[in-house]
Design goal:
The protein is an alpha/beta fold. The chain is built from nine helices and eight strands. Bound molecules: pyridoxal-5'-phosphate. Pyridoxal-5'-phosphate (PLP) binds next to strand 8 and helix 9.
């Protein structure tokens, strides 16, 4: 087995174990392989191992890979900051956008989503710790943005996405992930059709699943360190 295939197998085993420990069905947790900065060959290798969902942060880099691959059954998730002059490429090339945090971007993505594609799946990014340097909005703003997204026919509201600040120990990570879950539950009261809590990266995969994450985004532990 290649190194990458081994890594994928081990990440899936971690997901299965964390799910079991939480009394959850492992199938209820979707794995997004975050291939940002990695060559297209790595994406092919992961595809050969059965991975279908990939996350990318840097648009130019991502568009090149999407063009190179052109395999129908790859599902591409945009998980980086969105500049408003880049929305057209995102709307035309991705299946999901997980970093929506403002109205103007929502309207542009809706207007630019091609008619022959299914609606763009959208998660709103929450800034859990209200750090000024980070993207994302607070829950109250997300509720207002969610209401707008529901009126936009070319977007489909799926849930919330979180990038918690790094924590020193597992107990702190779990506490943070549980706060994210609480906010997701409040959000779901307004938007009961939402099914996605995108939470958990290489360093907090177990805690995220314990807290009820339905989608984990794993880069380093699949593709290795980024340089
Ligand atoms: C880079 C990135 C990840 C993956 O992080 P790892 O720690 O490498 O697993 C997940 N989500 C987002 C939004 C990222 O930017």
């Amino acid at each position: 087995m290649s190194r990458l295939a081994e890594n994928l197998t081990s990440v899936k085993a971690r997901i299965a174990l964390a799910a079991k420990n939480a009394g959850r069905d492992p199938e209820s947790i979707q794995l997004i392989a975050v291939s940002k900065t990695k060559p297209v060959e790595d994406v092919y290798a992961a595809l050969e191992s059965g991975q279908r969902d990939f996350g990318e942060n840097y648009l130019q880099d991502a568009l090149q890979k999407i063009q190179d691959i052109q395999t129908r059954d790859v599902i591409w998730h945009f998980i980086g900051p969105i500049q408003s002059n880049k929305t057209r490429s995102i709307a035309e090339s991705f299946d999901w956008v997980q970093t929506l945090d403002r109205e103007k971007i929502a309207r542009r993505l809706n207007d630019q989503r091609p008619e022959d594609m299914s609606p763009l799946n959208v998660c709103i990014q929450i800034n859990l710790d209200e750090e000024e340097s980070k993207s994302g909005i607070v829950l109250e703003q997300a509720l207002a943005l969610g209401k707008l997204v529901e009126t936009l026919p070319r977007l489909r509201l799926r849930g919330l996405m979180f990038i918690p600040a790094p924590q020193e120990n597992s107990a702190a990570r779990l506490e943070t992930c549980q706060r994210a879950q609480q906010q997701f539950q409040e959000f779901k009261q307004e938007f009961p059709d939402c099914d996605t809590l995108s939470l958990g990266m290489s360093s907090d995969l177990e805690e995220a699943i314990a807290a009820g994450s339905t989608m984990v985004r794993i880069g380093t532990d699949i593709f290795g360190e980024r340089h």
